[in-house]
Amino acid sequence: MSTGENLPLGFRYAATYAGIRKVEKDDVALIVSDTLASAAAVFTKNRVVAGPVTVAKRNLRVSRGRMQAILANAGNANCATPTAEAVALASVRVAGEALGIAPHCVLPASTGVIGVELDAGRIAGVLPKLKAALDTGPFDAAAAAILTTDTRSKTAFAQVKGVRLAGMAKGSGMIHPRMATTLAFVMTDAVAPPAVLRTALKQAIERSFNRISVDGDTSTNDTVAVLANGASKITPSAKGFGEALAEVLASLAQQIVKDGEGARKFVTIEVRGAPTDRAAEKIARSIANSPLVKTAIAGSDPNWGRILSAAGNAGVAFNPQQADIDMQGIAVCRGGFASDFSEDVLKKKLDAPECSIQFTLRGRGRGQTRFWTCDLTEEYIRINASYRT
Amino acid sequence: MSTGENLPLGFRYAATYAGIRKVEKDDVALIVSDTLASAAAVFTKNRVVAGPVTVAKRNLRVSRGRMQAILANAGNANCATPTAEAVALASVRVAGEALGIAPHCVLPASTGVIGVELDAGRIAGVLPKLKAALDTGPFDAAAAAILTTDTRSKTAFAQVKGVRLAGMAKGSGMIHPRMATTLAFVMTDAVAPPAVLRTALKQAIERSFNRISVDGDTSTNDTVAVLANGASKITPSAKGFGEALAEVLASLAQQIVKDGEGARKFVTIEVRGAPTDRAAEKIARSIANSPLVKTAIAGSDPNWGRILSAAGNAGVAFNPQQADIDMQGIAVCRGGFASDFSEDVLKKKLDAPECSIQFTLRGRGRGQTRFWTCDLTEEYIRINASYRT
Asked: Which CATH superfamily is domain B266-385 in?
């Protein structure tokens, strides 16, 4: 939960219901900085991109990385419709008019069903109300308004040398960020030029959103944006700020995995001894995306053969006889072969809500990574097989 | 079912229970040609390979593509154990002795749990019994002995100009063949030198086993082998034989998908208008492996946005506004946008046991492919989350 102390200075928030989602629950969030803020963002690498992604990219270019507001809606992805881009443009235009700022200083974002027209009038209709409601208080309301199949809000806070960071995210399914992810917004009152922000974001993303997977599907709307408005008048060191940003983003990314559709267990996969960090990531991703590994975890089955097999499919050359695997800190495989462990003991340990898998290659490789995923349960199927979630 | 007429001449079969699997059900199959046969095989591309795969590859090399027997067991993959290769070697040696043929003319294959020692004595112990039982009759018994989580046998037959082909396969989960697949054996009495057989197999695989997916996991034991013993004394044309082989392998591959773990629906994905056949395959594979597409099919949800999004993740450059999608022959997306279709009508059509998805890119691309997969149901989770299936 947010409190006055952990919110960055100079940002205000509002949320309301605009009738975009069927159930009456806030579906539009507005985040406004008192002054023009430095901004950096990363977006989905899907070839199919939503209207707001196209407009957000252009706005960042036109404004040279200066934004003053984020306008986000849930319930409709505003993607794969003839009007997607026009609706996103209309939304930033009316938001700019209402707030008295340039339209290209508004970053739009949407999430929800793909291929259904979004009525721009719904957002325009609630803008006066949103503007009037702007305050520091509704941070949590804004974080709630961007959720879809999520079962809980995802927020994270950090401080570094008097500078505050506050982040919010949504995401539960279609989670397989590559270079970007689902929606996440981080506000900070640090003084940081756009170039510094971009570098910090790029590095932090590689240790957070680019290291999680729920189901291996990459969304069309993935957007992670950071706004730094300098209201603290403090310029933190690039290193200190980068660490704080990575901390916030890693927390949000892990919250997304923990709230993965149908997930009951949070799984941390650590890979060490790979030829390169990139190779380590490939191995971790292959293990994280294997339905057979994920269902074994769901069933508390110490079936390490599936982990070894998934690693073998990663497209990384390694000698299986150099592979060691640990689950919950217990050696299950040494040099590619079974260790002498008690299946009953490990099975009980795997009933825990947090599970760890360590995959280590003996030898001189120094590549390593940490990756987060969740188990795959029948509930994931129930959620996604239901008609037009 | 096999009958005397559709079985190739000069092959005999046997199956028995050797105590490898827990339930008392045949778990060893022996296939023997009366004479040395031409042989070709493709194997898993997983970096982790089972002992029998290593030995089978070496035997094919040493014998220069001449085999006389296939020895396969279910219930244990003979993979990722210190003795895996030694056990596979011992098995082909005792089989060779029993049959009076060179050990390197026996092709071994295993399927089952990974990482548990296989007792070579169990196979050696049943070889006299297997040899005594060899006959043309037990073809179906051999096909049943190689099954694991499969719910039914997979066999296929073809004839071309007096030459007979008979195939058997197993496979239900861990199905994502890349250049190879699960276990499948095809026997033919055609006269065909190893080189001709290799070419025909390579081409047929690309239209069958390399175009299916159940869960995106590639096994450590995948083996498809063809034996041609020439007993018919007929040398079919390379083209005719290739077509017949492709027909048998496509049937077996489709039977594997239809028996996919938990599968209720068989899905055919056709991609057309891609820049190249390879690009078409990538798009089809991305659609086939998307859990969100597979769960939507399970729920009879005409959620074409997930299909478009999955195609966008294939790593193929295309303009989404040139994308047309049809489900069950009904236009659901034209030029990247929703078509005007009745969701209720299509939802009912998607309740059928066979579903079709057509993804077409407008323009001058001539790349195309056909790919088969199944829906993803709660039953898949139940099967794979259960302790050590």
From this structure: ArgJ beta chain, C-terminal domain (3.10.20.340)
